[in-house]
Amino acid sequence: MKTKSRSAQEVLRVNQQNAHSVAVLTDTGNRLMDQGEHAQAQECFQAALDLLLAARIAADKRAAITHYNLARAHAALGKIESAISHYHSAIEIRPRFPEAHNNLGMLLNDQGQFEYAIEHFKTVIGMEPLFASAHYGLGVAYQNLGDTTTAALCYQKAITLNPDFFASWVNLGLICYQIGSADVAVHCYNEAIGLCPGNAELYFQLGLAFMMLTRFSDAARAFTKALEFEPWHKEAKDALEEAMFFAISPPTEEEKKTA
């Protein structure tokens, strides 16, 4: 009995050491991710997973989180297939893992697999209705599938949950401009510019929305601002010339109708 008892204690000691090592490796990997050292972070996360597998702990919360962290590292290194595989492993172990579903959905969007991405974003929202990023990702998927109405609703929801959601403001602005709601597009672009003041493309898009509203002086100011940040922006240069021309000689009502 003594031998068995010592053996059990030894197993417990090894498991405790492994658990401590996994925690240390995970913390180190996360710190390296924050520092942009993605290759080193991947090594830490892989070492943590190897310890869990060696201890035959491959199907608990720690393993799911380790697969999730490995997926993040692989994605940052451009190893997309590996990242997707690890996200699937994390979800298989822990189906109610909203962050894994959301990140996987984002990768699937990037790969053009929008229908599959929608499934994962809807899963996230079913678990965490206030998950703003999932509403945004859902909007991206629907927008790419041509359903701009649903996409706009998704972006609006993301903004309601997080008013500083830059990408949602930008994409909502693009949709509003495309459907002719230039006044709403102006509002969206102004909100986005408030969050990212030095973005030349935003000022260019703002100028286009002002052009649609025949607010040519405002458009000229927006295009000028775009060129301050990006002097080689050819489209902004051409648009500025057009805006300045119409600011001096506005088109007649008849010309507007035939434009």
Describe, in plain words, how this protein is organized in 3D.
It is built from 14 helices and no strands. The protein has helices at about 1-35, 40-55, 60-75, 80-95, 100-110, 115-125, 130-145, 150-160, 165-180, 180-195, 200-210, 215-230, 235-250, 255-259. α5 packs parallel to α7 (about 130-145), α7 packs antiparallel against α8 and α10 runs antiparallel to α11 (about 200-210). It starts with a helix and ends with a helix. The mean pLDDT is about 90.
SS-derived structural category: mainly alpha
Strand-and-helix sequence, N→C?
Answer: HHHHHHHHHHHHHH
CATH topology of the domain at 1-95: Serine Threonine Protein Phosphatase 5, Tetratricopeptide repeat
Shape verdict: elongated
Tally of separate helices: 14
CATH superfamily of the domain at 1-95: Tetratricopeptide repeat domain
What's the quaternary structure here? Answer: single chain
Rg over C-alpha atoms, rounded to the nearest angstrom: 26 Å
Short description:
81% of the residues lie in helices and 0% in strands. With 259 residues, the chain is mostly helical.
Write the layout of secondary structure elements.
Elements: H1 2-34, H2 38-54, H3 61-76, H4 80-93, H5 98-110, H6 114-127, H7 132-144, H8 148-161, H9 166-178, H10 182-195, H11 200-212, H12 216-229, H13 234-248, H14 253-258
Helix pairs in contact: 1-2, 2-3, 3-4, 4-5, 5-6, 5-7, 6-7, 7-8, 8-9, 9-10, 10-11, 11-12, 11-13, 12-13
